[in-house]
Amino acid sequence: MSPTPRTAVFPGSFDPLTNGHVDIIVRATRLFDRVVVAVAMNAEKTPLFSIDERVGLIREVFRDHLSVQVDTFNGLLVEYARQQGASALIRGLRAVSDFEYEFQMALMNRNLAPGIETVFLVPAFDLTYLSSSLVREVARFGGDVSQLVHPKVQQALKRKFGT
Ligand code: PNS
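^ thats the input. predicted complex w/ 4'-phosphopantetheine below
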């Protein structure tokens, strides 16, 4: 009998997907059979990219990765993870500044769903300073983001800002 496939959910806003996210997703595929990249619909932010645009970009970037699926979710993350049959939530930890928020969230999620573990992955060293908000800001003012995002995302940013 083959073992039960292991699923992890990688949740976030992905506004937009950065090379830091890509790095974490690829690392997660080495640990899990199926990685569901779950774009949050109810984040209390006004996003630059619509939910469909964000999902579309992630799907394009991971089109050749059969173990990566891209989806949206609404409401509680742990409920969505349960529906997906996930045993783990993936989060990227870049710096100490991420730690408090991530620790709080991991403990709250464990409180809500004790059977689901949060797994923190550390991105490649040269991507640790990277965030979607910095990418948006640099791109808004016409700066070069080619080292920070996939070419498809770079094109989408250029279209968005007319740069
Ligand atoms: O990329 P982000 O914006 O840091 O992702 C935050 C996200 C979407 C993972 C978080 O806000 C979330 O899980 N939202 C869903 C609602 C929920 O379950 N909240 C309780 C978490 S403790």
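The chain has a mean pLDDT of 95.
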